[in-house]
Amino acid sequence: MLFSYFDEKRRAEERKRKMEKAGNVSAGLAIGALLGGISGILFAPKSGEETRKDISNKATEVGNNVKHKAHELKDQTVELQEKIKANVKTRMDSMKDKKKVIEEGAENIVDEVEEVAEDLKK
Hints:
Elements: H1 2-42, H2 48-121
């Protein structure tokens, strides 16, 4: 019992160290990627003007892609909304029709019960 307690404590500490190590590696990779990107821009064989133009073009392209995807998503949402509205309307109409049938059936049953009651009185 005591051995398993200490063994569990040791495993918990080991997991904690591994998580810290993984966090440090992730942070190092992110910083390295950022520095690599900046270095690539700064030491590129293109002039500053060309690099700025490339960055501007890429930013415009990304912006256009985002706008295009947003419009597509909006269109899909409107289409889905219309389908849902149509489906709800169809179901509501169906429920109204069923309600009418039930009400008519109930009226018929009441009429029949009244007729039977009349017959029994006679």
